[in-house]
Amino acid sequence: MAAPITEEILLELRELNSNSQKKKDINDVEIAGDFQTTLNQMVTIEEGDEISIKSCFIDSVEANAGKIHIGADDATITVDSGLYLFDWGFADTTNTYSSQRFHFDATTIPSGKPYYLAETNARDTSLDEVFSMIFYADPGGIGDWNAVPTAEFYLEYKDKNDVVKPVHFSIKKKDIKVQGENNLFFLNRELLNNDLSLPYLVKTNTLTSSSDAKLTKKMTDSGVYLVPGGFAGPSQAVEIHQKTNIPADGNDVYTPKVFTTKFTIPEGDYTAVDLAELLSDRLSQIKPIGQDYLTGTFSDSNFLYGSNQLLVGAEQPKYVASDGSDVVTFAGGNNYWVGSSQVGVVFNEDVNKFTFQRTHSSLYSSTGLQVIKSLGSGAKRYFANKTGGIWFNNLQPVSLWQDKLGFELNHASPTSVIIREQTATAATTLGALNGDFFYTLPLIEGASVTGDALDLDSLIFKKVDASKNQYFDEAPTNFATIETAGAATVSIFAKDSFNTTDDDINTPYYQIEVDVGQQGNKKYGANKFNNKISAIISRYYSSDSYSSSMDSSGSFSYIHKGQPFQISKANVRILGPEGNLVSGIGTDNTIFVSIIKRK
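RESULT FIELD:
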């Protein structure tokens, strides 16, 4: 017969209590479901005492609802962006092309290329073009070079205007050649097929590691250091291997002009659709919320300007072809739109990804339809599917755009939504601009910019117009006469799907690990063994609910044998089926542990 119960002691292990210490990740961010509680007084466990979980309350409200939590670190949003125009012509056919556009390569017809808005940087000794940098690996040391497959780099520099520019890129370690007794390696344009966006045009002596200690820790944790021996602190100088100190020789360097937009969204929990709509509303607004009157000519947005609002002094600015081959400027007095009429973030439920659905302005017909037009002749024929748009130079915070929305922010990656200027070449065929330097910029539809969708259906005339001899079942008599309606777009998709981790909404149960010094329970799985699992609880799927277990349901009991021991602290971890810490839960988690003492 079992010994009679003399006493039941309940231990409340609540993550939000002041006597609970939250565990943190490498970025010093608290980890939900991983904490240690210090008891108000010690409890002695003697032979015959039984330990079990009485009840559990898991803060799975956000996870069950499939919502995205926007905290203080996510709410302030910064968007660095640039403008570009697509050189297709213009709608006012009463003007000749050459009266409205001037090409420095002397052409007098539309080129069918995208041109980014540039700014002129006078060549002087305060600017460096950095072509190659030196870093250090430390195999087996603090960072353990071989522990992770990817090297992370978090740097920053000041541009010609003394604006700090963050730089982040990742490189697979198998592509890095470590050499010498100090384990140094070079990063240059030859690495990864020129994907590093070098050279960087920087103010002299301003290229450093990130000023954010959390980011430099990410870099060192991946095994990357700035000096031999394994040290990289915030704002530490990067060792430059090759650079060109730009002489004051009278020539100019043209770089993409970048505008900064900053706004704040309310903290809270959002569905993916609601968050996308909120971001679209804020990005597409004409003036900031709370501001009564416009300060700009037509709007206070950095995403759409009239060309006459971009004057440099009294002169029209220059627009550089994305391949660096040509420069165009507005020649006439007409005020043309430059940029995007919408900046739309959409959650695509078909593929479970966020997208920038539209960051461009469309062409329209005389009847107001969105259209695609055929232009050019001979070997230079093309379709115009927009008048221009915007591109992204930087999106912050990373915790929102990359970690939660899934966009790739490593500008060295071909899947990155943010881009940087790349190769700089001296002009030789641009007349008055010969000798000046122009950068290439990868304005690629579906990767860094959007456009109206162009496919075989674009060739079909969508109605019968006898006056123009146009019929839907007849091929056009002249390529240049094609004008077809369409509403689909080539969008920019996030790299990662939303909520597809192992611990996502499909997780059927949680494992509760409570360590108070007991060693009795043994759980074997396909890949792991754990002798600290104290309970397994089913997960509820109803929206806005906690996952809970009452009256010891799903709990394992531990009956102590041997010498007494004392409990002063309890470590709690909430795990998924694979034995890893779950993601997506909140921090209001409470476990009640029952200690039954018998005679």
